[in-house]
Amino acid sequence: MASKWADYIITAVRFDTTGSRRIISLRVYPDEGSSLGESAVWSFEQVAQAILNGSTFVTATKNSNGKLDKGASVELSLRTRRDDTAKDNLDNLPTF
């Protein structure tokens, strides 16, 4: 890391055990510019609230040299839960 990528870097996630692939926690590091701060495990809700409060997050993965490569920006999004009815999905609701 040569420069600051975001307020926080996410390097790992933990999913719930039901098989739904719902993220329940994330490994988060403060981005201090030329280095990372101490890691912490944040809940999904903590990360979501931080984003709503203006903090920025990106993902990062280790390359073959053991250094971090910058990944994607992390954003919040709305979606409907999958069921048997397409007509109640957000993109199928009436506009106003």
Describe the structure.
- This is DUF3892 domain-containing protein.
- It holds the Pfam family DUF3892.
- The protein is mainly β and 96 residues long.
- It has a domain of 66 residues.
- It is 9% helix and 33% strand.
- The protein contains 1 helix and 5 strands; from the N terminus they run E-E-E-H-E-E.
- A 5-stranded mixed β-sheet has the order 3-2-1-4-5, with helices on one face.
- It is elongated.
Which SSEs are present, and which pair or pack?
Layout: E1 8-15, E2 23-30, E3 40-43, H1 44-52, E4 57-62, E5 68-73
Parallel strand pairs: 1-4
Antiparallel strand pairs: 1-2, 2-3, 4-5
Arithmetic mean of pLDDT: 91
The count of strands amounts to 5
Largest sheet: 5 strands, mixed
Number of helices: 1
| Poorly predicted regions | none
Widest sheet: strand order? 3-2-1-4-5
CA-based gyration radius? 17 Å
What proportion of the residues form beta strands (DSSP E)?
A: 25-35%
Structural class: mainly beta
- Helicity range of the residues? under 10%
| Order of secondary-structure elements | EEEHEE
| Dominant shape | elongated
Distance between the termini: 46 Å
